[in-house]
Design the sequence.
């Protein structure tokens, strides 16, 4: 069985072809630096209407790399939400058209569930219950999976996402955008102990996150110390800021582990590419004698392989798939 | 023009809640203020004033660009932070939402909009103090 996945929930236009043994035959992601589109090399950074220009090319490329054609696809799958409605609509409408023209079923997929499921692409057997930390530019959430396909939201951010806080401080310091990966690199050479940030406390004891306080505290420190790229303590500041964000993430994971006693931990989402977060997460899991699973970087950022992989899981669990042309996108869970 | 001063996030929340509680449902609120000024907190307050049960769920749309909430009226929460030029803002298609609900736009200084709107300029003072200048 061959599955095609389509993902257009935010900036990336992506298509991927998977076999039912979870072999990734192709995973095309159209983003700034990876692929040059045939129409001039400028890749749409912005979502919405720009997806229309690239989706056909991305799908053709994913089929070509997989060595198949449209009539070789048995199941179509697409991100239904959450995300930017205009962007989601492009993917969903295109997928409906393809499935209808081929007379094949279409499986709608939740973007956040797909991120969590990305860990299963490289590890087919992960023991339940699983605690999953999803960290990206747009999301910071904790989920508990008591069994396959059962996702319970334990907490999410009340203001900025973790990746967003990193990006905003990087942009404020004129480091470039997206800033997360830039801070990741610069902070490697800094001493995180010189600048400390107080961890936010949720007064109601919930497992929600909050990062806007870090952002405000960081801005204050930048002003007080007149920090710029040339300041001798600059990398120390970035290291301290990044470390506090990682500490805040792991603090909530720790509380959730105490409360729900999972067998395994998953770290996923775009910020899961951050090397210190990966090391910190693995260290935390080892200290608690838990197995930890972090997808390869190409499956952390938005991609369609995770969409197709989750569709396959649903089929295995008895979802026959259908073609419901009245399916609509959703902006929020 | 009206000027308000707040000394905490809670006070900012309350201020915005009071302002939005008699909204008719088609207002446009343009928020301008530096990073960390409290634009998202102000929007949480607007959501609370519009009767959104859990205004804690209102979070920054910097990455997602547009967040939609169902309160007494639809709340359309838009953030232009990542958008660099007029073409990008046009591509967002936000004007399609005019008249569909209460629209709140963060980083509205990037926008040319001459229609009726509540324009909010936020200045950061000492400690947690914030000064809000509202123009109708």
Sequence:
């Amino acid at each position: 069985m061959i599955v095609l996945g389509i993902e257009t929930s935010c900036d990336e236009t992506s298509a991927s072809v998977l076999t039912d043994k979870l072999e990734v035959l192709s995973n095309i992601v159209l983003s700034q630096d990876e692929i040059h589109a045939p129409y001039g090399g400028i890749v749409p950074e912005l979502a919405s209407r720009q997806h229309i220009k690239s989706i056909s090319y991305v799908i053709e490329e994913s089929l070509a790399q997989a060595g198949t054609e449209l009539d070789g696809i048995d199941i179509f799958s697409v991100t239904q939400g959450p995300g930017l409605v205009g962007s989601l609509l492009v993917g969903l409408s295109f997928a409906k058209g393809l499935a209808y023209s081929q007379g094949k079923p279409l499986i709608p997929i939740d973007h956040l569930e797909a991120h969590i499921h990305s860990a299963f692409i490289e590890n087919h057997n992960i023991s339940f219950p699983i605690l999953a930390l999803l960290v990206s530019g747009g999301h910071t959430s904790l989920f508990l999976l008591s069994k396959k396909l059962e996702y319970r939201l334990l907490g999410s951010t009340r203001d900025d996402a973790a990746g967003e806080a990193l990006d905003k401080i990087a942009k404020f310091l004129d480091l470039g955008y997206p800033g997360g990966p830039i801070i990741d690199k610069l902070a490697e050479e800094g001493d995180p102990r010189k600048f400390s940030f107080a961890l936010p406390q949720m007064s109601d004891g919930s497992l929600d996150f909050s990062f806007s306080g870090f952002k405000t505290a960081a801005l204050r420190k930048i002003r007080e110390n007149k920090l710029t790229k040339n300041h001798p303590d600059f990398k120390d500041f970035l290291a301290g800021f990044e470390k506090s964000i990682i500490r805040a993430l792991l603090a909530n994971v720790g509380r959730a582990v105490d409360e729900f006693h999972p067998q395994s931990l998953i770290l996923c989402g775009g910020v899961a590419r951050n090397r210190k977060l990966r090391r910190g997460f693995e260290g935390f899991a080892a200290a608690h004698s838990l197995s930890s699973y972090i997808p390869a970087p190409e499956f952390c950022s938005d991609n369609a392989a995770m969409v197709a992989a989750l569709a396959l899981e649903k089929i295995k669990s008895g979802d026959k798939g259908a073609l419901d042309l009245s399916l609509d996108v959703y902006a929020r869970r | 023009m009206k000027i308000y001063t707040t000394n905490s996030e809670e006070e900012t929340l309350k201020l915005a809640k009071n302002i939005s509680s008699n909204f008719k449902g088609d207002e446009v609120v343009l928020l301008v203020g530096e990073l960390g000024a409290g634009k998202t907190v102000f929007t949480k307050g607007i959501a609370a004033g519009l009767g959104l049960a859990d205004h804690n769920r209102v979070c920054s749309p910097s990455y997602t660009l547009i967040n939609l909430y169902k309160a007494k009226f639809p709340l359309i929460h838009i953030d232009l932070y990542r958008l660099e030029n007029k073409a990008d803002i046009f591509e967002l298609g936000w004007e399609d939402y005019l008249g569909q609900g209460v629209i709140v736009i963060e980083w509205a200084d990037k926008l040319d909009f001459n229609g009726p709107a509540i324009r909010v300029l936020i200045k950061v003072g000492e400690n947690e103090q914030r000064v809000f200048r509202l123009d109708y």
